[in-house]
Design a protein that fits this description.
Layout lengths: L1 H14 L13 H31 L4 H38 L7 H10 L1 H26 L5 H12 L14 H29 L3 H37 L4 H5 L1 H32 L6 H22 L7
């Protein structure tokens, strides 16, 4: 998923890059390629923290002899992913400052401070980094004290770290600001629960058929809700942005933004097909604790999710694409 997200973000970023403006310096390759890669890695790390925090709720608490060995592995991973999330958010601030204030070279601390003071985008990233560090702190407590640190607390802290991120993208520029922000936050929250939960199950629960037989039905119900929310909010957000800045339906094919909306929609449809395969064909066999190809199909679903995450990174830079 990580490689798919980074590759999709870099390729989409290059394909949708605006034409050079004569007389204005162009960002160097470190910014042009590094910024979408860092943002994609940030999103994947954040989704991983959410999914690993969700894992205790999926596994249940009535069989600690089976679940605790899995959670002892999951808790340190949560901390590591949270630190990676925070580091990516800080790196994104630096790269965005370079793109705006000093294309082609790294900005000074003074320039970064000026950028943060004048622009809302880095403020959202800094708040997200703060919540990521808070998630790491709560995760460290969970490493030490186990499930006496409520899973609900870990999930809430991680999700709250996602909510400032729409400030760094096109939602902050929309006409119906409040509604669009709510829609975007539902979109990123649903995506993280869906993607992160699936990744956590595949990595840690899939080898144990008994636990998987209980956890996968819980996740399947959650994933169905997330699919509906993510698809609806994604289409609403994308089409609204196009309606404000371009003509519909021509804007869907005539602008880089519209083309990326189509590409992301195709990814969501592919994920829905893969998810349906798991829910209707594999889930009954998982419940019966039979041998299945869940990891293969689940990995394919996660890979396509990674592509969607990478495209979403470029979509968040809407003002440069329409």
């Amino acid at each position: 998923m990580v490689l798919a997200a980074i590759a999709a973000a870099m390729v989409a970023g290059i394909a949708a890059a605006p034409a050079p403006v004569p007389g204005l310096p162009e960002p160097g390759p470190m910014v042009r390629l590094g910024l979408p890669a860092v943002r994609a890695l940030l999103d994947v790390a954040a989704a991983t923290v959410v999914g690993l925090s969700l894992l205790p709720k999926l596994l249940g608490f009535d069989r600690p002899d089976l679940t605790e060995p899995i959670m002892r592995r999951a808790r340190p991973w949560t901390v590591h992913a949270a630190f990676l999330w925070a580091a990516c958010a800080l790196a994104a601030v630096v790269l965005q400052a370079s793109e705006v204030l000093s294309p082609g070279e790294m900005p000074t601390l003074g320039q970064i401070g000026e950028y943060i003071d004048q622009v809302s985008a880095p403020k959202g990233l800094l708040i997200s980094a703060g919540f990521a560090l808070a998630a790491a702190g709560v995760g460290r407590l969970a490493v030490r004290f186990g499930e006496s640190v409520p899973a609900e607390l870990r999930i809430i802290v991680a999700l709250f770290g996602l909510f400032p991120l729409p400030v760094t993208g096109h939602a902050a520029q929309w006409y119906w600001h409040d509604l669009s922000m709510i829609s975007m936050e539902l979109h990123v929250g649903g995506s993280a629960l869906w993607t992160g939960g699936l990744v956590a199950l595949l990595l840690l629960a899939a080898p144990n058929r008994g636990l998987l037989a209980e956890a996968l039905p819980r996740f399947s119900r959650l994933a169905t809700i997330c699919l509906l929310v993510v698809t609806a909010t994604g289409l609403i957000n994308g089409l609204t942005q196009l309606a404000l800045d371009a003509e519909l339906p021509a804007g869907l094919v005539a602008t880089p933004y519209g083309q990326l909306v189509i590409a992301k929609t195709v990814c969501l449809l592919a994920v829905a097909v893969l998810g349906a395969k798991i829910r209707w064909w594999l889930l009954p066999r998982v419940i019966r604790q039979e041998r299945t190809s869940l990891i293969v199909w689940g990995s394919a679903e996660v890979a396509v999710m990674g592509l969607a995450y990478g495209i979403a990174v470029v979509l968040s830079r809407a003002s440069t694409l329409i």
